[in-house]
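Sample 1 of the test manifest.
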Amino acid sequence: MPDATAAASTSQQRKSVGQAVPQVDSAEKASGLTEYLQDLTLPGMLHGAVARSTVSHARIRGIDTSRAERLPGVRAVITARDCPGILFGPQKPEDWEILCRDKVRYIGDEVAAVAAISPDLAREAAELIEIQYEELPAVYDPFEAMRPGAPVVWDQKPDNVAFHFHIERGDAEAAMSKADFIFEHDFYTGRFYHAAMEPMGCIVQHHGDGSYTMWAPTHVPFRSRMTYSRGLGIPLDKIRILVPPFGGSFGMKYELNINCIAALLSRQTRRPVKIFFDREEDITAGHPRMGLSFHYRVGLTREGRFVAKETRVTGTGGARTMWTPPVLSTACYRIDSLYHFQNVQTEGFLVYTNLAPATCFRGFGNAEALTAMETFIDTMAEKISISPVELRLINGVKTGDVSLHGWRIASCGFQDCLKRSAELSHFEERQQPPAIPPARGKLRGLGLAGGNHISGNRIIINEYDGAAAQVRLGFDGHLSIMVGEPDIGQGMNTIFSQIAAEVLDVDLSDIRCLPVDTQVSPHGVGTLGSRGTAVAGRAVQLAAEDAREKMIRLAGVMLGVDAAKVVLSNGVASSPAQPGRSLTLAELGSRYVTDHAGAFLIGHGHFAPPTEVPDATKFGNLSAAYVFGAHVAEVEVDAETGSVRVLRYWAVHDSGTIINPSTAAGQVHGGAAQGISSALMEEVTLKDGRVTNPNFLDYRIPGFQDIPQIHAEFVQTNDPYGPFGAKSIGESSLNPAAAAVCNAIYNAAGVRVSRVPVTPERLWELMETRRREVGHD
Amino acid sequence: MLSGNLCRCTGYHKIVDAVIQAAKEINSHA
């Protein structure tokens, strides 16, 4: 494998890869010209609204839609009677109904829907729908829900366990009995709202031939199409999904039932229907990151080597299943490929409750697990008197390692990330935490945490892994890239363009990424599992290489020279054998089209990474590549109020070769900011199943003043599978952040937190309790 | 006022950078 020095020397010869170019659509976005879903209007378009349950759990005794139907401007009102009545969904158990048939299961559950000539009228009509309930006892806490006699959310799962995860490797019990130390740790990560600036929405148009076109910002257009076709009971090819530009997602815009609701409203009215959430609906009836409870038990040797880990993870899935089963699995075992625990025994429970269904969030369960484990590692380090950096270095994975579950770590800069982040922050020079938090004053502290992630995931679509791309040379010489992986706002199209520009040696302005369209784009797995750059990017590289070869062959014919003598450089084909003659991209493109009766020159590429479908014990290489990082936070705790400010922040990542240092740093800034906020500010709060902070005044996301200067740095490794050695950054940028903040709080105030967010009240209480305990000694 | 705006993607870094860069460019043309 080439070492870092070799990678650095080749990067100097590159023209596009490695350059900090602005995102290809940044001028359009900054000047407000991008057409998001909310900017799209179709002729005759109606607006849809959903009538939602106002109770947590009830049998539906009747629905009276007459008042809504009489409202002028209303074009359709639908209930479960108008639905195919199929249970479907993106994951097992399949528990989606397009509209509730017999029961409602959470406040916000979808009972009826309206199409009207304006969004306001549609909402007004939805409110006029009268639903008669026979209320049932409800359950909100997953541990209560698992107790015998608890209210049952779905009869098919009488114990309320929607999904159970189990993984075992080695003999944890035996190893634990021989350990020099055994420690235990409990941690809870709260319900966390994505808060994309653009709420969820869609436009669906029904056509005369029974087909539908859906304009839907979605990470997974091809999977969405499968799910919606099952729910609507129609063949796959009757649905075409077009992906407009995203106004943010962070995991929330995967597969959404509103697409099916809008489809039925459109079928009924023969008009296109738009459903677009307002902020309150997005928070209350949307799908937050689920609350997760972790219980860990870890055995170590005197030297600080982990020998066994027992894990129990419990997730508050909500009343229906979205992408939570794989999130729960990830929370259970991805961390086993960051540290060598040697023997593991893990149980995970995804539990039905009478809450809005949760779904995935950037980090996909691993961010939460790392928050729990990385705070635990600091506790253990202190108890056995080893530096937190050292304990991580002793147990962390390295290049060439194979993890317990068969994950092959082909490139790994974890050790360098830990050392560099500690060096930048002078971490080892930090002060001891106070034995008792003083009653007044500003307390400062440093905290460090590590993290890992994948770059692609073998089991998103079981049939295959990888990605396909096409690079097309147009009549006028412009190049178009087609992939099945949408740009979700993070800049994927810029990365794809830079990769193709590098291979073809053309200007970035000659390249355009076409919007994903399930009718014409390659059948993509989607933009998830941090697979955009590493997997789809590699497919783009291969497609561009294929296009390059075809362009060179054509140029050889046109110049009358052997193709081996053709040079493609700066967007011009020429040959030393024919000095003075050259061909532009437009000359190549138009010649190809005229020679082929209108067919374009198309380069095809597909990349199937060396991953494996895990066996029955969940053993098998899961990802194309693995990424690592370490963050250090410096915080200031107000001893009097418990409020925490992050003053300085360092983030060091191994994401392989960096295709674009500017957008990569942007991902780190945004990821760290979101992670810091998950540690300190944000939680969807509930009372009897009702969200008590359903707006941006009560649900606070960070503003300018809440986020410190973030120093982002990369240790460059050169991955053997990613394009030009590149790996992912989107999710790993968030993963260590919350634990780094929690560890810094301990260093500042001398109290360990066991749940996030650490609100001022909670921290104040922890400090007060500590003061009282010590006072009584 | 810029500080009253919310952003979920950038962590505000690139916005501050852009403002500083724009200020420099505008002032250099003055």
